[in-house]
Write a structure and sequence with these properties.
With about 325 residues, this protein is mainly α. It is built from 9 helices and 4 strands. About 60% of the residues lie in helices and about 5% in strands. Helix 2 crosses helix 4, helix 4 packs across helix 6 and helix 6 crosses helix 7. The relative contact order is 0.14.
């Protein structure tokens, strides 16, 4: 199903490029835009992971440099039946995480230093299991292409508005049509991208909870991350807003409702769904357990308790 969705997104990008080209330059413009679309699809497919990791200055770690974190991912990947992904850490105080890569064989999972210092091992396992669920479902490629489509449509619409406007037959494009293209096309693309993102988050929560064998751990993690994302800015995400949908919690606002313009489902709705799943998984032991029970779930508006107890200033990850 996700391979089909990816193919539809690529086809949509080609069709939109062709449509804009035809509006701006007739048959010649359509031909040029279709060529640009084909090149962009190819480039996105092969470089999506490296580009987003480079944008966030992510550094790769291994069993020697981050033994506890790497070990958690290793256990989760084995339990999910996935190849071991590359593991990265982003030096950012906001707790958050994302996955990227075109397929499970070329996947990467990433966590911020803020997440590793804020969450307990059981909660970190829930988050990374969620990201591995995205990998298993091939959501990483789907969402990267969706973000590329949304950004490309916006860029082309602005380009066409300021520099286009003449068809190959010499006639000028109706200015009302140009304005509608500038406003409506990027808006429609963003709504499509965000709708895909929201639907995949619920599915990844459910599968991730089963991979970690611990819905409550992920629920507690979501509450802490949502609170942290509200109070700690992520300046890199502000510079690259199209990447917000890749994160487990929106890094720009950290909250929202299940509306057309939300990058993620409302956190309280996700937690409620995980609590319901926990009732179906009673008696199953978590794959990763903390030294003490996980911090009780709080709402995003309430500050969570310190995860390592009073007086502890740094997490176990250094």
């Amino acid at each position: 199903m996700n391979y089909f969705k990816t193919a539809v997104l690529m086809a949509a990008l080609m069709a939109l490029f062709g449509m804009f080209g035809a509006m701006l330059g007739g048959l010649e413009g359509m031909s040029v835009m279709l060529i640009i679309g084909a090149v962009m699809n190819f480039y996105t497919y092969w470089t999506s992971d490296s580009r987003v990791l480079r944008a966030y200055s992510a550094r790769e770690v291994d069993a020697a440099s981050a033994p506890e974190f790497y070990g958690i991912v290793q256990k989760l990947a084995a339990n999910a039946g996935l190849p071991m992904p590359k593991v990265y850490i982003i030096d950012n105080p906001q707790p958050n995480a994302f996955a990227t890569g075109r397929n499970p064989e070329h996947a990467a999972v990433t966590a911020t230093t803020g997440l590793l210092k804020t969450l307990e091992p059981r909660e970190i396992a829930g988050v990374m299991a969620h990201e591995l669920a995205h990998v298993k479902n091939h959501d990483t490629l789907t969402m990267t292409i969706a973000a590329t489509i949304a950004g490309a449509i916006s860029t082309i619409a602005h380009f066409g508005f300021w520099f286009g406007g003449h068809r190959s037959d010499g006639q000028r494009v109706n200015p009302i049509v140009m304005i509608l293209m500038l406003v409506a096309a990027p808006l429609a693309a963003s709504i499509l991208q965000l709708a895909i993102s929201r639907s995949r988050e619920y599915a990844a929560d459910r599968m991730g909870a089963r991979i970690a064998q611990d819905p409550q751990g992920l629920a507690a993690a979501l509450a802490k991350i949502a609170y942290g994302a509200q109070s700690i800015p992520n300046y890199t995400a502000e510079d690259y807003p199209a990447t917000a949908s890749l994160f487990i919690i929106n890094p720009l606002t950290g909250h929202g409702t299940d509306s057309l313009f939300a990058t993620h489902p409302a956190t309280e709705n996700r937690i409620a769904a995980l609590r319901q799943l926990a009732g179906e998984m009673t008696g199953i032991r978590p794959l990763i357990e903390s030294g003490r029970p996980s911090t009780p779930v709080v709402t995003p508006d309430q500050p969570p308790a310190a995860p390592w107890g009073p007086g502890r200033k740094r997490g176990p990850w250094g």
